[in-house]
Specification:
2 copies of one chain form a homodimer. By secondary structure, chain A is α/β, with parallel strands linked by helices. Chain A has 10 helices and 18 strands.
Amino acid sequence: MRTKIVQGLLGCAMMMAIPAGAQIPAGMAPGSLGRNDPMPIRPDYMRTRAVISPVIHPDRRVTFRLNAPEATDVRLTGHVIGAKMHWLSPERTLPMTKGADGVWSITLGPLEPEIYPYSYMVNGAGVSDPGNRINLVEVPGDKPAYYDPQDVPHGDVRMVVYHSKATNSVRYLRVYTPPGYDESKQRYPVLYLQHGGNCCEYSWMEQARANTILDNLIAEKKARPMIVVMALGARSGPSEGLGPVPSQREGFKPPPGRQSNYDPGNLFEVDLLTGIIPFIDRKFRTLANADNRALSGLSQGGIQTVTIGLRHTDVFHWLVPMSAGAENQGDDQFMKISEDIFANPEPLKKNLKLLHFLVGREDVLYEPDKRLAEKLQSLGVKLTFQALPGMHEYKVWRRGLYETAPLLFR
Amino acid sequence: MRTKIVQGLLGCAMMMAIPAGAQIPAGMAPGSLGRNDPMPIRPDYMRTRAVISPVIHPDRRVTFRLNAPEATDVRLTGHVIGAKMHWLSPERTLPMTKGADGVWSITLGPLEPEIYPYSYMVNGAGVSDPGNRINLVEVPGDKPAYYDPQDVPHGDVRMVVYHSKATNSVRYLRVYTPPGYDESKQRYPVLYLQHGGNCCEYSWMEQARANTILDNLIAEKKARPMIVVMALGARSGPSEGLGPVPSQREGFKPPPGRQSNYDPGNLFEVDLLTGIIPFIDRKFRTLANADNRALSGLSQGGIQTVTIGLRHTDVFHWLVPMSAGAENQGDDQFMKISEDIFANPEPLKKNLKLLHFLVGREDVLYEPDKRLAEKLQSLGVKLTFQALPGMHEYKVWRRGLYETAPLLFR
């Protein structure tokens, strides 16, 4: 009886472990709960049982492991593999080696201290690490990094339920309130900070630790205390599971001229200007004017920064597009918006307090970003341009926030 | 040039899509950005490109789809498949069918309106849906469900950075503050609500919509406005990516007598009683006494509720263990703790205002839960016991919160 219940318990853990993952320590039989009994668990529970992965070695090598005895081809992918992950490289995976126990593994490094995304390809399909659902590994250095949570006052990040008329959906906004917000009567400037095309309003926390970066900058008085608003950028996909997803209803048609999942600015532009900003200014103690309002974002969020921001310099006086590449993308919507701006650059010259382009030096969007910046400069618009080491990846954007937040609201 | 940049852009989207996923509408060539050009994208980008999935039909059938042309065996798993997902059933997957386009699919239903978890098995490895990273599908009914966000005042859920001395880690607490919290000077009772063994402090929001359930109950005056604290229950795995994970450091050894990832109460007990509760009582406007403090949780969180809660009736006067099965688990720690309680049930009789067991009728833990409840009753402890339709699954716990939050602090 005892064995049966133990089996049941572990079964429970494993059932729910696909793919979120319950970690079973390496070498420990699932079903044993720390004991040395024979395993009562059925083989099919075993198939995706998690092993400890990744394992970080003291010399900053990292071993990635996946238990996949039935697979015939398992590979490591993600920016952790380095330059191969450049999208112009012919292969963006590294082969892993199968052990006698059915666990595939690969060891990389030593790696520079950094937070790296990774995942697996099992017979051609992308797979999360069952033991590490967010698929990030931080290789620590000798001391805490600028993005690590330090012993300083911390702001909170609020999940705020937001009924969006423009997109006809209910979503979360994530709102960082700086340390001391609750205790003060103070009003704060606001940075609207947008994620990329692949994910969600929580990406800046999950992938980039935007909140702890700001905590650290504010503690060092390098950045002004500010509110940061992170909204879901008009994607149709779910964020943290709030309500059904319109694009998944049979018969769903995206609005004319738009794809279901890619909106280069217009829907989100309406939502941001007529919905989100007024809502935030009601709900939080903001300094509700353009001098105290910034817009930034990465990749798709960078596109939103130049398309929305450059057209609304009465709303935002601070713009930091990251890896936008919004010019020369072969998308008529962007070009049309850009033409308006090129034809009448006066509001930009008059209103903007900061226009700062930031992009990875190895990003294929480096050149398009540079061309857009040069075009604007040729029209007399003042701007700055910063390239950081890296590709189209969070390493650049994480550092980018750290470098650019101190420039805002000065 | 234009084609090359388009290729680059999409490459970017797809690189980051593994496994988080960028949705490409079904039948649309990736690389075309809505145009009908030939696809410039390389075959390896194609391998895991997302299709729209799941597709919800008007008759409440649901079609699940995965693009995996190189796979030889693709299956659907998760509680969406119904009774087969019971952990005592011999097979907990349904085979999917491969189409000529390399997309595997299966259609289920009609399904009852509900939120269902699902995922795929590709050649034996657990795989997220690339188009739906959280792997939940809500089948909507004719009107909003009790867990859907309604047009009522909403509370916020804060991600609060917490430095845990007991576990030597930095973590997030999630704290639900009820509607009106910011505007009032009121103090509120607190429910500590724990996740299960497979995930994290955000599970109650992501999987169960704890916050919108409470919003709805509070708006209907069925539940008292309360603060809800959701902590990471002493797991060593990462939650939303805050800091390195000790168990992943080479040479990591769990504390004596404990596994690295499964702590039945002690570490978390110390953290909760000496760290988290005092921290919450400092940071939030709580009613900081046992009459206004409840403990609940599901599965592992249910175990924590009976092990910690029954031993600390000076701290919690309201206990709602869900699917705990903490008796007869074959784990000596639980039995030892239970022996203490059985030997001296007087504090339970004297202090507890509510002890309410809740479990799925088809849960294999139903019987153990019932035995524990009967044992306590035989010792003169007053309690209630509620069984809901379902297995060891969020369907039960989501409904469980809806049923039990109104019982608290009355």
